Amino acid sequence: MSSSTNTKNISSKPIKINKWDTNALKNALNDACKKYFKETLNYTEDYSVMDRRLYISLISCLFSLYALIYDWFNPFPKSRSVLIACVASYFIIAGILTFYMRFIENGRFFTGKLIDKTGIDPGQKCKIISKLKKYDDIYNLTLEYYDGTNTSTSSVAVLKKSVGNYFDENGVLCYDKYINDLKKIYDQARSNARKVK
Amino acid sequence: MEIFSFVDDVKRMDKRQAIYQVLNFGMIISTALMIWKGLMVMTGSESPIVVVLSGSMEPAFHRGDLLLLTNYEEEPIRAGDIVVFRIEGRDIPIVHRVLKIHEKNDSYVKFLTKGDNNQVDDRGLYSPGQLWLEKKDVIGRARGFLPYIAVLGFFVLVHREN
After folding, report:
1. Sequential DSSP letters for A133-144
2. Most CB atoms within 10 A, among A115, A179, B75, B145?
3. Taking a C-beta distance cutoff of 8 angstroms, is the pair B71, B138 a contact?
4. CB under 8 A, 24+ apart: contacts of A47-56
5. ipTM above 0.85, yes or no
6. What secondary structure letter does DSSP report for A167?
7. Residue A102: Cβ within 10 Å count
């Protein structure tokens, strides 16, 4: 796919962001983590969590679009009941979306599956959650590792470090340093899972 | 080069993140739109917030003030009410006071308006041949008011003294 070669070219340049913007910091670290898991460890990304969020947003936007168009063609007093229905549904769905993002998604930015090419192992799954508070510098990365399809054999590894460890003075991400720490917690999670087994 | 860093950000986003940004923007616009439509439904008026455009209602309202309107069927329009109406065929809403009313038993009303600060009534503003306004021309009655330029004027005054 041409888009993947494009991203390879862009991501081979070191990522530079505004080091004071906590959102950009979190996104840069998340993206680097995803890149590591997808390229180096060969995980395939499972998009269902994000897709559900996108669908909920899409439905709410469709409601508001419908209200707009209906009201445009049938000026106000005639469109009253449709408007009430659309406004109420919109706010309900927006509420559902907030609930979904806050409690169900909760900072999870990567869900991945590692399918064993030899077909012997049933494959491993990984769920990664990251949290970076607004004016805080401690980046919390929680890695849940599931060995095989039996979800009871799972282990959790946590990385809690200041973002200052990974970004230099100019806001450039030191990819290798970050990947070292990632590798450590990933191996830790894997060995814990094996121990439980 | 700040602009180019933004372009880099966009290129780094994959398809899903780009869709998410678009939907995020759509949600912001939709929230504003839904709040406006919600206000429309709650007040019963097709334009629940209007800006006073002329000085014809001074000293009550000045140019730039915001008015909150309601247009409930159950509350009849009476002489002395401040109404916002639109003349048929013209877009501009006018804020004036009701002077006289003719009312029939079936609650069909005709009324005459005049701006407080004007010398004559509004018959000069109505369409040629129209002598009275009807309920359908009314957008709503002024219920609440937010002085707007007044606040800015105050700031300008204070700033100038410094």
Report:
1. -TT--EEEEEEE
2. A179
3. yes
4. A47/B16, A48/A111, A49/A104, A49/A105, A49/A108, A49/A111, A50/B16, A50/B20, A51/B16, A52/A100, A53/A97, A53/A100, A53/A101, A53/A105, A53/B20, A54/B16, A54/B19, A54/B20, A54/B23, A56/A93, A56/A96, A56/A97, A56/A100
5. no
6. B
7. 10
**pLDDT, mean of each 10-residue run, chain A (197 residues):** 40 69 82 82 82 91 91 83 90 91 82 72 76 81 75 75 81 83 84 72
Q: Are B67 and B83 spatial neighbours (Cβ–Cβ below 8 Å)?
A: no
Residues of A in contact with B26 (CB under 8 A): 57, 61
In this predicted structure, what is the pLDDT of residue A16? 77
B56 in active site: yes
Which chain A residue has its CA at the smallest distance from B25's CA?
Answer: A61
Interface test with A, best of B37, B39, B40, B73 (most A CBs within 10 A): B37
DSSP string, A1-39: -HHHHHHHHHHHSPPB--TT-HHHHHHHHHHHHHHIIII
Confidence grade of residue B25 (pLDDT, cut at 50, 70, 90)? very high
Q: Is residue A123 classed as helix, strand or coil in its secondary structure?
A: coil
Contacts of A102 (CB under 8 A, 6+ apart): none
**Ordered DSSP codes for A65-115:** HHHHHHHHHS-HHHHHHHHHHHHHHHHHHHHHHHHIIIIIITTEEEEEEE-
Contact in structure between B106 and B119 (CB atoms under 8 Å): no
CB atoms within 10 A of CB A91: 16
Q: What are the chain A neighbours of B88 within 8 Å (beta carbons)?
A: none
The residue ranges of DSSP E strands in B30-137, in sequence order, are 49-51, 66-70, 82-86, 93-103, 109-114, 133-134
B26/A51 touch (CB, cutoff 8 Å), yes or no:
no
Q: pLDDT-based confidence at B3, cuts 50/70/90?
A: low
Q: What is the distance between the alpha carbons of residues A169 and A173, in angstroms, rounded to a whole number?
A: 10
Pick the CATH number of B49-159 from 3.40.1390.10, 3.40.50.720, 3.40.309.10, 2.10.109.10: 2.10.109.10
The residue extents of the domains of chain B are 1-43, 49-159
Q: Per the structure block, which two tokens stand in for B145? A: 């008011």
